[in-house]
Design goal:
The complex is a heterotetramer. Chain A is mainly alpha-helical. Chain A has one domain. Helices cover 77% and strands 1% of the residues of chain A. In chain A, a hairpin with a 4-residue loop joins strand 1 (59-61) and strand 2. Chain A starts with a helix and ends with a helix. By secondary structure, chain B is mainly α. Chain B has one domain (6-98): Helix Hairpins (Orthogonal Bundle), CATH 1.10.287. Chain B has helices at residues 6-26, 30-54, 61-91. Chain B is elongated and about 55 Å long. Chain D is mainly α. Chain D is built from 20 helices and two strands. In chain D, helix 4 packs antiparallel against helix 5 (131-140), helix 4 runs parallel beside helix 11 (243-268) and helix 12 runs antiparallel to helix 13 (301-322). Chain D is globular and about 75 Å long. Chain D starts with a helix and ends with a helix. Classes of the chains: A mainly alpha, B mainly alpha, C mainly alpha, D mainly alpha. Chains C and D meet through strand 3, helix 5, helix 6 and helix 25 of C and helix 7, helix 12, helix 17 and helix 18 of D.
Chain lengths: 470, 104, 643, 485
């Protein structure tokens, strides 16, 4: 019995263990060198990643509060992998940072929050997971205490997220009033698509939309991404977004299935708005972090397009895309963060002539951007293709056409970066940079993921075999 | 004894909700904005309790949810205050208008 | 039927010469390239004479009628069943006659060039081009397939372009080459479309089948005559367009403008291409399709008749006024070709109605000799005085007696004085014209008189006019390699008339005995002599009579001197209209409108993105406001409107 | 024969190039690679003839391997006559391209790697029988072009590169939507949805779907082959690109479009093709005539050739639009002929530019005296472009004309005649360019002493010229190779 619980909770528990370990280290004030802590954490995250591959039977704990099955384990593992990559990339930033331990405590508690959120079977559990992840995140985003922008970002983040969770809760309360329960399964049975429930749903949706930064709930994104430490930005843009997408698509496909007709239209609208706005804003950016922020907004537009497919292919393609997206986006963010920690330069113009001095970084950046733009043979191509393919399943080709054209627009600003790196030159280009071991490993993982993912069809097959849809 | 109908209570909570929102939109002071958010959360609490008491009195889900919300609101407030203080260190002001360095 | 396969060697040998010299001529074979080229052509000459002998005297006739023979055939490019470009060799009287003429004159020119072009830097290239031309011309005359003839037609044009532009560092030469190519290309467009029209309805590209289907009653003939465009039957369209192609190559009015300029090429080239062979390709083309023209569409034949007559007269008039020796010859060429053309035009369905056919071919045959001779003489003269202008010459008869003699023979021949070759062919033509159309006959007479006049004007002002002439730096009349061709050709010009042509080359292949020309010949000969005397009176001695005479004609003279301003009209049309009114706008539109559209798409996108940047105001309160607005809009849209 | 080898070979070569250490090792490695590739392609040709002689019909050397099973997406390759011809073309052009870029100084490794990558995309495209595979390879080819032009190009290279990349991506976006449309209309009774070309060719797509998706696919592919009015990337792109890239761009990449129009749009949606063919023919005719006139006004040799490419690719679209067997065959011939011709032309222009550092016609002159070889190949390319018999251009154009003429209807006839008329204009601008830059007196004294072509340039020119003449003198083997049903 206990063993069963523990095994089902293995990923969450291990993360919790790490957190407590770090707490003890901190409180015990034992003077460990930061490197040791970093290595320890990375190692344990790696162990956790390995645990994810251990197949264990599906189970439902705490009378329906907590679900777990192969799909969820996979999703958690994807998030875990992303976190691991980020922490590897952050190595050179953290190793001489005083509060490395706190950073990890916060980071991992958000991770645990996401874990609980995506395997929640109940609105209460969902809310707890969400907040467990949101509040540390806001703290993280002001982690550069002395940087003005950082704390400004944090302020915007906490206020708007508090507001959004307020609306989310209001929606939940209305839904509770309408159905009289908090457990997903029962809600699904009791939904009838009445105006009242629809209003509740829209409020809840706005909570999700805020997290995945769908237009018009996205406005915090750019500022927070720009202000926060790049590591946190990377985390926000892939892990947090990915996690929320996981739970979002699950709730849509299971809980709000009766309302499918309604939310399909809403999602199409949001998706178009998100893609277009994200791209249009990204066109004009000169700061790379901001550009990537808007590009990630546009990406969520594409993911929404995939969700609208509301088929197994839709679910599978979304998960697949998020996996790919982790590699590509972390590749790009990794380069940006590495360069900015080394030289503190973050604008596109600073990258002029980068290729002459740092070919490897340039190629990583280029491939990641191509993957984000969906250019073959990078994995991003397959991700985008499947998303829109799933979306087209509904036969709404105008929508898909708009999405396809948006891919062209997005290509423009990605190519601007490429142009700066490969074609332009400047008086004092970024000097030759030595990449330490751990970030290098992270880069290679991203690169490998970008290059080979598309050619390994079985990955998609596996995800598809687990995914849900109707 | 005749009791207050549910709709009245819902009206109160909704009013509270919009008051909070209004405060959030108009107040320049970050602390006040934070308080308005708390108002919103409290309106939610009222909702939960009311629904629970009036419609689904057999279970206590709503009430428990309220408890959690209160707790989390506290945590949120703590972090928010911390952030705001930190911002004040850098900005020497808690006027939200002052913090719009990053835009467009 | 005997095996004619070796005939393929006749065109292939010059081709081989072209390939070899083209690849190695410039570097390795520079010295002996001339010999190689000449040798190759010599073999072709022998072969073609052998073929001619065999065809005319031993095997060609089947029960008294010369049969066309397909000596060789291979599918080259097949479009659809029955419709394919074949590489085939057809033997019939005209083609056999033509291969003799072409290879013979070409050989003469090769020989002549040995001396004339000696020491040229691109000697090998020159012979390579000559080889290419000879190959293409022989291929042209042997073609048994209308598309095959078009192919060689183009190749001939190209090699003519290359040879005219041989002195490529002379801008005038380059311009002339361009002009020649483009004008003929324009005409060939007509040819091509004509081919498309004819072939589509004939459902074949093979000459014999096509002629057969269009001359005997057949569904194809019915189809093409019934179908019409702008009220004219497609058959007429097709034939006219094909004729336009021929007119372009043969420099008939109004497509003649390229020929005089083409004289920028080396003189032997002018002799070969622009006098004896290529320019008569048009005549040959019409002759090749003659049955169709004659039997199925007399209307087009009328067009041919008048175009030919006008060209003949016009060219003759212009020739009287030119002072550049080669240009005079060029215009006379044009005039003679006009002769041949209207000879073909004179078909009528009386007895001996096809006399014009024989006559035209006959004139083509004789003309080749004396016109080539004239050009080669001109070559010798230019070689000597280093100038094309008549006024730099004069009184050369002492210093170059041989040339003088040959030139005189040629002039008499072209003037149609018996017993020189030109006489016979011309008489036949005039006779045919007389029977067919009196008006054209008069034009013919007038032209022959003018011909005599300008030829002797040329003759006198080159060899007489003033005494002494240039003797400075006098290097005789060139080496033997230049003399021999003159003599041989002179002999040809003298004797070619006695070939019993009407027994060999006739419309229906059956022999036809020439009508006695005796009495009929008086008038033309008298006129010719009159012309000669007039020329002698004006140009024999240096005097200002010519100017006076010119003054008498006044405007006419001026017009003729400026070639009736046809060149100017053309250049106006091309420069002003085609370039400025079509080309320039097209380029402008492309850059500014079409491309501008594409760029403006990007511009609009950028403008929009600049326009909406205000939403990202940086104020968290605006953010939450938009957040709430978003919810409100969604709620309104999807709760009240969509349900 | 395992066709995937043709795709892998360039990639392997590229990898070897990456690890080639020695100075100038890159070019030798890539030369070897492309030569082997050329031999492979010839081997393919011979095997293909063997198979056909043995009487096997349909696609040959097919190979299927499941890629994304749940979506029924396969890696599926196979060849028919057309693809064999196109592959040969690509191989030949690639050898020439590597040879002419012998003197790439900066980042030569990257240059050759990108070039090889580009070619791999083209090979894959011509091989693939699964529409997904096809699209995959189609899009692969966009980015290398961008980098090649942007890094090694000349003039306003960034602008041109960006324009090219965006317009081509726009094209492939349309193709993408079209393909999805096709995919979702294959299923139903005929079994699961599929991208598999032979299968789709069997199931007849519903007419409605054809009407909706044919324009997307045709225009999308058409942008690649300079369909009016989406041709404006061509002049800038071609003229800014480095020589090898221009050769490949004009020679091969533009043919991807034509091939796609034929293989995907027309052959999968015959009904819609017939309905839309007047529009196609109209656009093609405009492209032909208008392109030719626009060319007449150009002053820069590369612009001249680029615009003439628009006009010539018009013939491709015209032939495809006319839909008669002969016309389509002519279109394919034109693809191959134009590929060789324009590659040769760009090679010659590149050589001239390397030496004189100008491409402006009025600055050049009398080159025939100084660099006879280069001038000769320039003239040959020009003559081929104006359709001189004995060179490939004539064969292709004549076939297109004959085919178009067989389409009954006065409008079609007029379109054909206009197309024919364009050959005169072609003659005009080719001869103007030749007359001014190659012939005439030497304009600039410092041109004296400029060297003629080096061995590698000569080799490149000879290879391309051999192809041109082989087709021009003996077209029957080509027409046998691509007998279109």
């Amino acid at each position: 019995m206990w063993a069963d619980t523990i095994l089902s909770l293995r990923q969450e528990l291990l993360v919790a263990v790490i957190i407590f370990l770090l707490l003890f280290i901190k409180v015990g004030a034992a003077a460990y060198r930061t490197e040791v802590i970093l290595h320890l954490v990375n190692l344990l995250l790696l162990v956790n990643f390995a645990l994810g591959f251990w197949e264990y039977r599906d189970s439902i704990l705490f009378n329906g509060m907590f679900h777990t099955n192969k799909l969820l384990v996979l999703e958690k593992n994807i998030l875990n992998l992303g976190t691991l990559i980020i922490s590897l990339q952050a190595y050179s930033w953290l190793k001489d940072h005083r509060q490395a331990t706190e950073f990890y405590i916060l980071l991992l508690s958000t991770l645990m929050g996401f874990f609980f959120m995506i395997s929640s079977g109940n609105l209460l559990m969902f809310y707890l997971g969400l907040e467990l992840s949101t509040i540390p995140l806001t703290a993280l985003s002001s982690f550069d205490l002395e940087k003005r922008q950082s704390s400004e970002a944090a302020m915007k983040f906490i206020l708007s997220s508090a507001f959004s969770s307020g609306l989310l809760l209001f929606g939940i309360s209305l839904l509770y009033g309408a159905t009289g329960t908090l457990s997903f399964d029962i809600i699904a049975q009791r939904l009838d698509g009445s105006a009242f429930q629809l209003f509740a749903f829209i409020l809840i949706l706005s909570g999700f939309a805020f997290k995945i930064s769908a237009v018009p709930f996205h406005l915090w994104t750019a500022d927070v991404y720009e202000g926060s430490p790049i590591t946190v930005t990377a985390y926000l843009s892939v892990i947090s977004k990915g996690a929320v997408f996981f739970i979002f698509i699950q709730t849509l496909y299971t809980v709000f299935k009766p309302m499918a007709g309604n939310w399909y239209r809403i999602l199409v609208l949001l998706s178009v708005l998100t893609m277009v706005t994200g791209n249009l804003f990204a066109l004009r950016q000169n700061k790379l972090k901001r550009l990537l922020a808007f590009s990630s907004i546009a990406q969520s537009g594409f993911i929404l397009a995939g969700i609208t497919g509301s088929s197994r292919a839709g679910d599978a393609s979304v998960i697949y895309f998020i996996l790919v997206y982790i590699f590509s986006n972390l590749g790009a963010f990794g380069v940006v963060s590495f360069i900015s920690t080394q030289t503190g330069r973050e604008s596109i113009d600073d990258y002029k002539g980068l290729y002459a001095t740092n070919p490897l970084l340039s190629w990583i950046m280029a491939l990641s951007l191509f993957s984000l733009a969906g250019i073959p043979p990078t994995a991003g191509f397959f991700g985008k293709f499947f998303l829109l393919m799933a979306g087209a399943g509904k036969g709404n080709y105008v929508f898909i056409g708009i999405a396809a054209l948006n891919m062209v627009i997005s290509l423009y600003y990605y190519l601007r970066v490429i142009k700066a790196i490969f074609m332009d030159s400047q008086p004092q280009p970024i000097g030759k940079l030595k990449i330490p071991l751990l970030p290098n490993i992270a880069f290679l993982v991203c690169l490998g993921g970008i290059v080979v993912m598309g050619l390994m069809g079985w990955v998609y097959d596996y995800i598809y075999s687990l995914s849900i849809g109707f | 004894m005749n009791q207050v109908p549910l709709s009245h209570i819902l009206f109160v909570s909704t009013a509270l909700f919009f008051i909070g929102m209004y405060g959030l939109f108009t107040r320049r002071n970050m602390i006040t904005m934070l308080m308005s958010v708390e108002l919103i959360l409290n309106s939610v609490n009222i909702n939960f309790v009311a629904f629970n008491r009036y419609l689904y009195a057999d279970k206590l889900e709503g009430v428990f949810f309220t408890l959690f919300i209160v707790a989390i609101a506290a945590a949120e407030a703590a972090v928010a205050i911390a952030i705001i203080i930190n911002l004040y260190r850098n900005l020497h002001s808690i006027d939200v208008e002052a913090a719009d360095e990053m835009k467009f | 039927m005997p095996n004619y396969a070796y005939i393929i060697l006749i065109p292939l040998l010059p081709l081989a010469a072209f390939v070899v010299l083209g690849l190695f001529g410039r570097k390795y074979l520079r010295g002996i390239s001339g010999v190689i080229g000449t040798g190759a052509v010599l073999i072709s000459v022998v072969l073609s004479l052998w073929v001619a002998y065999g065809y005319f005297f031993s095997v060609g006739k089947v029960d008294g009628v010369y049969q066309p023979v397909i000596a060789w055939k291979a599918v080259w490019l097949s479009f659809s069943p029955g419709l394919s470009i074949d590489m085939s060799i057809i033997l019939d009287p005209i083609s056999v006659m033509m291969i003799v003429v072409v290879s013979f004159v070409s050989f003469m020119v090769h020989l002549f060039s040995l001396g004339y072009m000696k020491g040229e830097e691109r000697f090998g290239t020159y012979y390579a081009f000559l080889g290419l031309f000879t190959f293409s011309m022989l291929g042209l005359v042997l073609s048994g397939n209308i598309f095959e003839i078009y192919i060689f037609w183009e190749l001939v044009g190209c090699s003519s372009f290359l040879l005219i532009g041989y002195y490529f560092d002379r801008p005038t030469a380059v311009a002339a080459a361009k002009k020649a190519f483009i004008v003929t290309r324009f005409a060939d467009l007509g040819f091509l479309i004509g081919i498309l029209i004819l072939s589509l309805h004939a459902e074949t590209l093979d000459f014999r089948t096509l002629i057969q289907r269009f001359t005997e009653p057949s569904p194809q003939l019915a189809g093409i005559t019934s179908a019409s465009f702008l009220g004219i039957s497609l058959l007429s369209w097709g034939l006219t367009l094909v004729f336009i192609g021929g007119a372009g190559k043969s420099a008939l009015f109004p497509l003649h403008i390229w020929l005089p300029d083409a004289m920028e090429g080396p003189t032997p080239v002018s002799a070969l291409i622009h006098a004896a062979t290529m320019v008569v390709a048009g005549v040959y083309l019409v002759a090749r399709l003659y049955p169709v023209y004659a039997l199925s569409d007399p209307a087009v034949l009328q067009v041919i008749l008048f175009v030919g007559a006008i060209s003949a007269l016009l060219a003759a008039v212009i020739a009287c006024t030119q002072t550049d020796i080669k240009r005079v010859l060029a215009y006379s060429t044009m005039s003679q070709i006009g002769y041949m053309m209207f000879a073909l035009g004179t078909f009528h369905s009386g007895e001996e109605g096809a006399l014009g056919y024989t006559a035209g071919m006959f004139h083509l045959f004789t003309h080749a000799f004396f016109k080539a001779l004239l050009f080669l003489c001109a070559g010798v003269i230019i070689h000597k005085v280093h100038s094309n202008e008549m006024r730099d010459m004069g009184g050369l008869r002492r210093s170059m007696p041989l040339t003088h003699g040959c030139f005189l023979i040629a002039c008499l021949a072209i003037a149609g004085i018996p017993p020189f070759s030109g006489f016979f062919s011309k008489e036949e033509i005039l006779l045919a014209a007389y029977r067919a159309n009196k008006f054209v006959y008069v034009i013919g007479l007038l032209t022959s008189c003018l011909t005599a006049f300008y030829m002797f004007r040329l003759y006198f002002s080159v060899f007489w006019w003033r005494e002494g002439g240039v003797s400075a730096g006098d290097h005789g009349e060139g080496p033997a390699s230049m003399k021999i061709p003159l003599v041989v050709l002179a002999a040809g010009a003298l004797l070619a008339g006695f070939v019993p042509f009407s027994r060999l080359v006739t419309f229906d292949g059956a022999a036809m005995d020439t009508p006695g020309v005796g009495v009929f010949a008086i008038a033309p000969v008298m006129l010719a002599i009159l012309g000669i005397l007039l020329a002698g009176y004006l140009y024999r001695k240096e005097s200002d009579r010519p100017r006076k005479a010119a003054g008498v004609f006044g405007v006419l003279y001026k017009l003729a001197y400026h070639k009736f301003y046809i060149d100017e009209i053309y250049s106006f049309v091309t420069k002003k209209i085609i370039f400025n009114l079509i080309g320039r706008p097209a380029a402008w539109i492309d850059r500014n409108i079409v491309d501008g559209l594409m760029n403006s798409l990007a511009g609009v996108t950028a403008r929009i993105s600049a326009g909406i940047k205000g939403f990202q105001s940086g104020r968290v309160q605006d953010y939450v406001l938009y957040f709430f607005a978003g919810i409100a809009v969604l709620a309104v849209l999807f709760i009240y409107i969509y349900t | 024969m395992n066709l995937s080898l043709l795709v892998l070979m360039p990639l392997i070569t590229a990898i070897v190039v990456l690890f080639s250490r020695r100075e100038g090792g890159a070019r030798w490695v890539s030369l070897t690679g492309v030569t082997v590739q050329l031999l492979l392609s010839f081997g393919l040709l011979i095997l293909y003839w063997k198979e056909r002689a043995a009487g096997s019909m349909g696609m040959l050397f097919e190979y299927r391997h499941v890629w994304f099973k749940p979506l029924n997406i396969w890696y599926h390759v196979g060849v028919d006559g057309i693809s064999v011809a196109m592959i040969l073309l690509t191989a030949v052009v690639m050898v020439a391209a590597v040879l002419v870029s012998w003197r790439v100084q900066s980042w030569d490794k990257e240059f050759f790697v990108l070039l090889l990558f580009l070619s791999a995309g083209a090979y894959g495209f011509f091989l693939s029988l699964d529409l997904f595979t096809l699209f995959f390879f189609l899009e692969i080819s966009v980015i290398p072009k961008f980098l090649l032009i942007g890094i090694w190009g000349s003039g306003k290279k960034e602008y041109s590169a960006m324009k090219l990349a965006l317009m081509l991506m726009g094209g492939s976006a349309l193709v993408f939507v079209g393909l999805l449309g096709v995919y979702y209309n294959t299923g139903g009774a005929a079994g699961p949805y599929t991208f598999d070309w032979p299968v789709i060719a069997q199931v007849h797509l519903p007419v409605e779907a054809q009407r909706r998706f044919f324009p997307l696919l045709f225009v999308g592919f058409g942008i690649f082959t300079a369909l009016f009015p989406f041709h404006t990337w061509v002049p800038d792109g071609h003229s800014s690109a480095p020589t090898a890239a221009s050769m490949f761009l004009a020679g091969i990449s533009m043919k991807l479009g034509g091939y796609g129009c034929l293989r995907v749009a027309v052959s999968l949606m015959p009904i819609a093709a017939r309905e839309y063919s007047p529009v196609i023919i109209l656009l093609a005719t405009i492209a032909i005539v208008y392109g030719a006139f626009a060319t007449m006004m150009q002053k820069d040799l590369k612009y001249i050739n680029a615009y003439s490419s628009i006009s010539h690719c018009g013939f491709i679209l015209l032939g495809i639009g006319m839909l008669t067997r002969t016309a389509v065959m002519g279109a394919v011939m034109q693809m191959i002929s134009h590929g060789l011709m324009t590659a040769l032309f760009f090679a010659a222009i590149g050589m001239i530019y390397d030496r004189t550092h100008t491409r402006l016609v009025e600055r050049l002159g009398g080159l025939l005296k100084i660099m006879p070889f280069i001038s000769t190949i320039f003239v040959i390319a020009g003559l081929c472009s104006l359709g001189l018999p004995g060179l490939s251009g004539f064969v292709a154009e004549v076939t297109v004309f004959m085919g178009s003429w067989q389409r009954t209807g006065e409008a079609y006839r007029i379109a054909t005649i206009l197309a024919c008329a364009s050959i005169v204009i072609t003659a005009v601008y080719i001869l103007r360019a030749t007359g001014q830059s190659i012939m005439g007196p030497v304009k600039d004294q410092q041109y004296y002493g400029l060297a003629d072509a080096t061995w590698n340039e000569k080799l490149a020119a000879v290879i391309l010229g051999a192809g041109i003449i082989a087709i021009g003198v003996a077209p029957f083997w080509l027409s046998d190779l691509l007998n279109i049903k």
